[in-house]
Amino acid sequence: MKVVLYPSYFSDVITLSFAYSAQTIIWEGHGNYVKQTYRNRCYIAGANGRLALNVPVVHTGKGFSIPYKEVQIDYSEPWADNHLKSIHSAYNSSPFYQYYQDDLEKLFSEIPELLYHWNLKTFDFLIRNMSLELNFEETTAFKNDALANNLIKAKGKPLYSVDHYIQVFREKYGFLQPLCGLDLLFNLGPSSIAYLKSQNKRLRHS
Asked: Which InterPro entries does the annotation name (predicted)?
């Protein structure tokens, strides 16, 4: 089975659940860049509730569309350091954060120029540490895929949901979703892959 996805910033748990059983993921990067999506945003569970981490991008001016693959990251502000600090603050007390901390800091020390490539690296970080083996292709032209379009949206109520798992600050805020894959990894560690397997079966029949 092949699944079309847009590379997103530390893909959320719902997207990872769909990706779990895909024999091949086809990355879509030819369509125009769209604001307020998971292309440059992810959510973590912070001390004050769900917290958005946004990657700033270089804007080309009003009314001008640019392919997703060509969007450049804006380095005029220290967003990477801020994101690392926020992630550390949120997950330092989680069961597995310290186990992956060094690899995460290394990832943030080698950020490419293009958002598309950075998102591929964050996805690789997640699946590698979750021991999830997948094959990949890239589209050669824009592929307007309904599932990919639904999963990349960061605004509005999600069309899908996942079962509860242990989270930091759960006693204060209840179960938060959708959150990025870092939340799953830091809370469940090696058990993340078993969780994704269970969610994939449920989402496929929802």
From this structure: WbqC (IPR014985)
